[in-house]
């Protein structure tokens, strides 16, 4: 099926602050070609990790096989259950640099941080610097995904307890990650002056 089962979406996209046991990453996507003021949808669907291959790399392989026309502009929108790991962020950054006619927006349910090396914040910064628009999913984004990618049987999306509070918390965390480093240093200096 081109649509995701409700239980898979609700389990994997729940924006918990601590999401233990959720090891798979799901990626819902929309690909559009932009012609001046109009856009034309080319494809949509969802993917998940496969054995030994992260979902972001699977999508990049999928879209690379299209042999996109460099004379057209394309916009890809992702809704992911986890933010990209450092290595995937590097692959995405390279792909964006190789395809300047392509824009990418990534909406993430949760932020992923590998405990072993903690390189993911740098990967997100590089991705942002390469032109990817990255944000945390809000109720509106979950609602859109529910109506676009989920076999919902005409049921209205109902947010879970803590959805808004967790979105706000994660958005603040992401904003701190994406702050230019000189702003972070300025903030640290200001806190020191204030004795905080």
From TrEMBL:
PROSITE patterns: CYT_DCMP_DEAMINASES_1, CYT_DCMP_DEAMINASES_2
One GO cellular component term: P-body
Pfam families assigned to the protein according to its UniProt record, in alphabetical order: APOBEC_N
Domain of life of the native organism: Eukaryota
Keywords: Cytoplasm, Hydrolase, Metal-binding, mRNA processing, Nucleus, Phosphoprotein, Ubl conjugation, Zinc
Keyword Nucleotidyltransferase: no
Principal place of residence: cytoplasm
InterPro entries assigned: AID, APOBEC/CMP_deaminase_Zn-bd, APOBEC_Cyt_Deaminase, CMP_dCMP_dom, Cytidine_deaminase-like
Known EC number: 3.5.4.38
GO molecular function, one term: zinc ion binding
GO BP field: cytidine to uridine editing; defense response to virus; DNA cytosine deamination; mRNA processing; negative regulation of single stranded viral RNA replication via double stranded DNA intermediate; somatic diversification of immunoglobulins
Cofactors named for this entry: Zn(2+)
Key word Hydrolase present: yes
Domain CMP/dCMP-type deaminase: 21-127
Subcellular locations according to the entry: Cytoplasm; Nucleus
Reaction it catalyzes: a 2'-deoxycytidine in single-stranded DNA + H2O + H(+) = a 2'-deoxyuridine in single-stranded DNA + NH4(+)
Similarity comment text for this entry: Belongs to the cytidine and deoxycytidylate deaminase family.
Function comment: Single-stranded DNA-specific cytidine deaminase. Involved in somatic hypermutation (SHM), gene conversion, and class-switch recombination (CSR) in B-lymphocytes by deaminating C to U during transcription of Ig-variable (V) and Ig-switch (S) region DNA. Required for several crucial steps of B-cell terminal differentiation necessary for efficient antibody responses. May also play a role in the epigenetic regulation of gene expression by participating in DNA demethylation.
Protein name per its UniProtKB record: Single-stranded DNA cytosine deaminase
Organism in which the protein naturally occurs: Grantiella picta
Taxonomic placement: Eukaryota, Metazoa, Chordata, Craniata, Vertebrata
